[in-house]
Amino acid sequence: MNKSIKHVAVLMGGWSAEREVSLVTGAACVKALQEAGYDVTPIDVQRDMGALMTRLYPKPDVVFNALHGRFGEDGCVQGLLDILAIPYTYSGLLASAIAMNKPMAKTLFEKAGLKVAEHIVTTLPELVEHDVMEPPFVIKPVNEGSSVGVHIVMDDDHRAVLDDGSLAGEIIMVEKFIEGRELTVAVMGDKALAVTEITTERGFYDYDAKYVEGGSKHIVPAKISKKIYAKAMEQAVIAHNALGCRGISRADFRLDGNDLYILEINTQPGMTPTSLVPEQALHAGMSFKQLVCWMVDNAEYDQ
């Protein structure tokens, strides 16, 4: 604990599709920070910036940004905190915005020498009317997290998956489905923590697999070759730096044989009881309380 930091405000909730997960993350971080001796102010963020700014005065020493999804994770809140000159956890405005925009992030990953799946950006009407890619492929919103609105299409009949209303907005990304194993790597500062393999009986690592108890199994360290393990660790750091991330991030990969494809970076990975980053930190010898204290101690804002 940094003794010069006394007051921490924890932003949680919000109004995105990931509100409930954010509340769980926020509650866990509030508890850990209180146990560490900080004066903590929990703030359930609503769509009222005047009310939020009122809650942020007198200014805390640090904001722990436990928001997930749009407006909390995509650079919007980060920009407000930059204006207020309040240090905050995780990445800054630009890295947050780029990471949340999946096609733009993929462009930077490719420029950094990382493999990405074949993909196109299209619209819902275009996808309904035409075969934009041979199946199997994955349909993703361009700017959501936690697998919100993600659909895997294994055959030509993909119209039915578009009728559930989970794809907000017209612009979507269609990505070639990569067979293989799901891997994820947390980066803390400039160092990768571990490689986790994720398995689930739900078909893919969707929202429920991520957050419902028993929805998935996390194997840490992943039982893969030393060469692939080291490659995943190295590439997670490359991806973190390519987007200009800071603090904690988590890179998700697909391993197909010996080919490692990066899917995306999460600049504000969850801190729920089933979350991956706390598990990897524990594997590296760091308790949950030590992890959130490190994040507070290393908080910054863009001047």
Which keywords apply here?
alpha+beta, Rossmann fold, 4-stranded antiparallel β-sheet, 5-stranded antiparallel β-sheet, D-amino Acid Aminotransferase, Chain A, domain 1, Dna Ligase, domain 1, globular, 303 residues, single chain
Structure description:
The chain is of the alpha+beta class. The chain has 3 domains: 7-90, Rossmann fold; 98-116 and 179-290, ATP-grasp fold, B domain (D-amino Acid Aminotransferase, Chain A, domain 1, 2-Layer Sandwich); 120-176, ATP-grasp fold, A domain (Dna Ligase, domain 1, 2-Layer Sandwich). It is 32% helix and 24% strand. It has a 5-stranded antiparallel beta sheet. Strands 4-7-5-6 form a 4-stranded antiparallel beta sheet.
Strand order of the largest sheet: 10-9-8-11-12
Structural class: alpha+beta
The helix/strand order is: EHEHEHHHEHEEEEEHEHEEHH
Oligomer: single chain
Q: CATH topology of the largest domain, which one?
A: D-amino Acid Aminotransferase, Chain A, domain 1
CATH superfamily grouping of the largest domain: ATP-grasp fold, B domain
- Per CATH, which architecture of the largest domain? 2-Layer Sandwich
Q: Please report the total strand number as a whole number.
A: 12
